[in-house]
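Good day; I would like, with your permission, to put a structural problem before you. What I wish to show you is a protein chain and, alongside it, a tokenised description of its three-dimensional fold. Please examine both parts with care and let me know of anything in them that strikes you as inconsistent. Thank you for your consideration; the sequence and its tokens are set out here:

***
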Amino acid sequence: FFDQSTGQFSAEGKAQLEAADTAWQRHLQLAKNKPDDSVATVMVQAYSQAGLNQPEKAVAAQEIITEARPKDSTFATLAVLAYEAGQTRKGDLATKEALALADKDERNTLKSELEAAKQQALQSQIQGATENAPTATPEGGGKGGGGKKKDNAKD
């Protein structure tokens, strides 16, 4: 199901992850305000880039873990996942809490690591946005163009 050498799930593995997602969503409905944080730990991995690549769901699962076990490490993980999901404000809030809970002698290192994670996530989002950006359309093909401008017109 999972190839250790490539760090990727096989088609069968992805199908198993989809089944786990369905079961997890059902669990969340039934558990209401008391979801199982140990299962949430497994789901963070299932929603990772190597798995189902659903960063928003990974953040939601990590929030359950962090609420159940509020430590600098769980807040730091929440911050990284939030940044990867494009949830910068949530990442910043989790970073602030992680730093407040961290041992004084570890704060600078943790701050640097989380700032690097934020910058890497922002860079990935910018790169993804430019790769997925629509290309320019000729003469009036874009919004509000009207298509009446001539090639020889001078602006």
